[in-house]
Amino acid sequence: MKRIEIGRFAGFCSGVERTIRMTMEALNKDKNRVYSLGQIIHNPQMVRRLEELGLNVVSDINEIKEGIFIVRSHGLPDNYIRELKKRGLKIIDATCPFVKKVQEKARVLKKQGYELIIVGDSQHPEIKGVLSAVSEKATVISTKDEAELVSGKRVGVVFQTTFPLSWSQDIEAGLLDGCQELKVYNTLCFETLNRQKEAIEMARVVDVMIVVGGKNSANTTNLAKITASCGCPTYHIEEARELQSEWFDGVCSVGLTAGASTQSLLIDEVVSNLKQILGDAEVHIFGVDLQK
Ligand code: SF4
């Protein structure tokens, strides 16, 4: 019998749930005058749904004159928030507490006189927010090669919340070479770590991995990279209709995981399409011996 294994941790994390809840509450209070700069979470389908409910997603803060502004889950540079407050907007800060922790630890390290290294994607909104929290006085790196080029007496390190654990360990090892004193704060989000660990375990025992979530979502993209690096054929999709039957030729078991901003409805749709493609397949929650 063919099997579909669904990750126990697949889907919404607490940070994304919190952001959506705060946005819905704001929309209930003041429909049509609620704004976000860019996507409040990296899930295009969910953002579209919130737009249907009245959320205004803008790409430039100059488009916002009044109303309520939601700070997205990844945070926002301080100067944007100051400017919007000056214009009299009500600010609802939906920055995930784990992201806040990265900002806070970065500030602490700067205050203590450490040369700050931020490990992550320099183009990601979370990292732009962390840089802003320390007045841009930090270096962003994302590879072991870059880490090996860092040298200094007192170097402090924080990580993007969704950075993969094994890559973080490699970078730490790379930094040891050139730094006399290295102070590292583990700012990886445990919800991301749970997903990554489970995805690795699944990728080791199934024939194919399906990773569901926004292509612009760092944690989803990293999940797909991690399972592919385990040698398991991996497909990253946003919606069920992207599944292609030829991916499953000769396949007996499929692992399914999803990023932290992927709602359960999307996962259910993928399971339903997978069942059709595979024919008669049992659906299990990974690591739990109960048929779904
Ligand atoms: S993945 Fe972690 S850091 Fe990102 S929003 Fe969710 S809980 Fe927060």
From TrEMBL:
<keyword id="KW-0004">4Fe-4S</keyword>
<feature type="binding site">
    <location>
        <position position="124"/>
    </location>
    <ligand>
        <name>(2E)-4-hydroxy-3-methylbut-2-enyl diphosphate</name>
    </ligand>
</feature>
<feature type="binding site">
    <location>
        <position position="124"/>
    </location>
    <ligand>
        <name>isopentenyl diphosphate</name>
    </ligand>
</feature>
<feature type="binding site">
    <location>
        <position position="219"/>
    </location>
    <ligand>
        <name>dimethylallyl diphosphate</name>
    </ligand>
</feature>
<dbReference type="GO" id="GO:0051745">
    <property type="term" value="F:4-hydroxy-3-methylbut-2-enyl diphosphate reductase activity"/>
</dbReference>
<feature type="binding site">
    <location>
        <position position="217"/>
    </location>
    <ligand>
        <name>(2E)-4-hydroxy-3-methylbut-2-enyl diphosphate</name>
    </ligand>
</feature>
<keyword id="KW-0408">Iron</keyword>
<feature type="binding site">
    <location>
        <position position="74"/>
    </location>
    <ligand>
        <name>isopentenyl diphosphate</name>
    </ligand>
</feature>
<feature type="binding site">
    <location>
        <position position="42"/>
    </location>
    <ligand>
        <name>isopentenyl diphosphate</name>
    </ligand>
</feature>
<dbReference type="GO" id="GO:0019288">
    <property type="term" value="P:isopentenyl diphosphate biosynthetic process, methylerythritol 4-phosphate pathway"/>
</dbReference>
<protein>
    <recommendedName>
        <fullName>4-hydroxy-3-methylbut-2-enyl diphosphate reductase</fullName>
        <ecNumber>1.17.7.4</ecNumber>
    </recommendedName>
</protein>
<keyword id="KW-0560">Oxidoreductase</keyword>
<dbReference type="InterPro" id="IPR003451">
    <property type="entry name" value="LytB/IspH"/>
</dbReference>
<keyword id="KW-0479">Metal-binding</keyword>
<feature type="binding site">
    <location>
        <position position="219"/>
    </location>
    <ligand>
        <name>isopentenyl diphosphate</name>
    </ligand>
</feature>
<feature type="binding site">
    <location>
        <position position="217"/>
    </location>
    <ligand>
        <name>dimethylallyl diphosphate</name>
    </ligand>
</feature>
<feature type="binding site">
    <location>
        <position position="261"/>
    </location>
    <ligand>
        <name>dimethylallyl diphosphate</name>
    </ligand>
</feature>
<feature type="binding site">
    <location>
        <position position="261"/>
    </location>
    <ligand>
        <name>isopentenyl diphosphate</name>
    </ligand>
</feature>
<keyword id="KW-0411">Iron-sulfur</keyword>
<feature type="binding site">
    <location>
        <position position="189"/>
    </location>
    <ligand>
        <name>[4Fe-4S] cluster</name>
    </ligand>
</feature>
<feature type="binding site">
    <location>
        <position position="74"/>
    </location>
    <ligand>
        <name>(2E)-4-hydroxy-3-methylbut-2-enyl diphosphate</name>
    </ligand>
</feature>
<dbReference type="Pfam" id="PF02401">
    <property type="entry name" value="LYTB"/>
</dbReference>
<feature type="binding site">
    <location>
        <position position="74"/>
    </location>
    <ligand>
        <name>dimethylallyl diphosphate</name>
    </ligand>
</feature>
<feature type="binding site">
    <location>
        <position position="42"/>
    </location>
    <ligand>
        <name>dimethylallyl diphosphate</name>
    </ligand>
</feature>
<feature type="binding site">
    <location>
        <position position="161"/>
    </location>
    <ligand>
        <name>(2E)-4-hydroxy-3-methylbut-2-enyl diphosphate</name>
    </ligand>
</feature>
<dbReference type="GO" id="GO:0050992">
    <property type="term" value="P:dimethylallyl diphosphate biosynthetic process"/>
</dbReference>
<keyword id="KW-0414">Isoprene biosynthesis</keyword>
<feature type="binding site">
    <location>
        <position position="124"/>
    </location>
    <ligand>
        <name>dimethylallyl diphosphate</name>
    </ligand>
</feature>
<comment type="function">
    <text>Catalyzes the conversion of 1-hydroxy-2-methyl-2-(E)-butenyl 4-diphosphate (HMBPP) into a mixture of isopentenyl diphosphate (IPP) and dimethylallyl diphosphate (DMAPP). Acts in the terminal step of the DOXP/MEP pathway for isoprenoid precursor biosynthesis.</text>
</comment>
<feature type="binding site">
    <location>
        <position position="217"/>
    </location>
    <ligand>
        <name>isopentenyl diphosphate</name>
    </ligand>
</feature>
<feature type="binding site">
    <location>
        <position position="42"/>
    </location>
    <ligand>
        <name>(2E)-4-hydroxy-3-methylbut-2-enyl diphosphate</name>
    </ligand>
</feature>
<feature type="binding site">
    <location>
        <position position="96"/>
    </location>
    <ligand>
        <name>[4Fe-4S] cluster</name>
    </ligand>
</feature>
<comment type="pathway">
    <text>Isoprenoid biosynthesis; isopentenyl diphosphate biosynthesis via DXP pathway; isopentenyl diphosphate from 1-deoxy-D-xylulose 5-phosphate: step 6/6.</text>
</comment>
<comment type="similarity">
    <text>Belongs to the IspH family.</text>
</comment>
<feature type="active site" description="Proton donor">
    <location>
        <position position="126"/>
    </location>
</feature>
<feature type="binding site">
    <location>
        <position position="261"/>
    </location>
    <ligand>
        <name>(2E)-4-hydroxy-3-methylbut-2-enyl diphosphate</name>
    </ligand>
</feature>
<dbReference type="GO" id="GO:0016114">
    <property type="term" value="P:terpenoid biosynthetic process"/>
</dbReference>
<feature type="binding site">
    <location>
        <position position="219"/>
    </location>
    <ligand>
        <name>(2E)-4-hydroxy-3-methylbut-2-enyl diphosphate</name>
    </ligand>
</feature>
<dbReference type="GO" id="GO:0051539">
    <property type="term" value="F:4 iron, 4 sulfur cluster binding"/>
</dbReference>
<comment type="pathway">
    <text>Isoprenoid biosynthesis; dimethylallyl diphosphate biosynthesis; dimethylallyl diphosphate from (2E)-4-hydroxy-3-methylbutenyl diphosphate: step 1/1.</text>
</comment>
<dbReference type="GO" id="GO:0046872">
    <property type="term" value="F:metal ion binding"/>
</dbReference>
<feature type="binding site">
    <location>
        <position position="13"/>
    </location>
    <ligand>
        <name>[4Fe-4S] cluster</name>
    </ligand>
</feature>
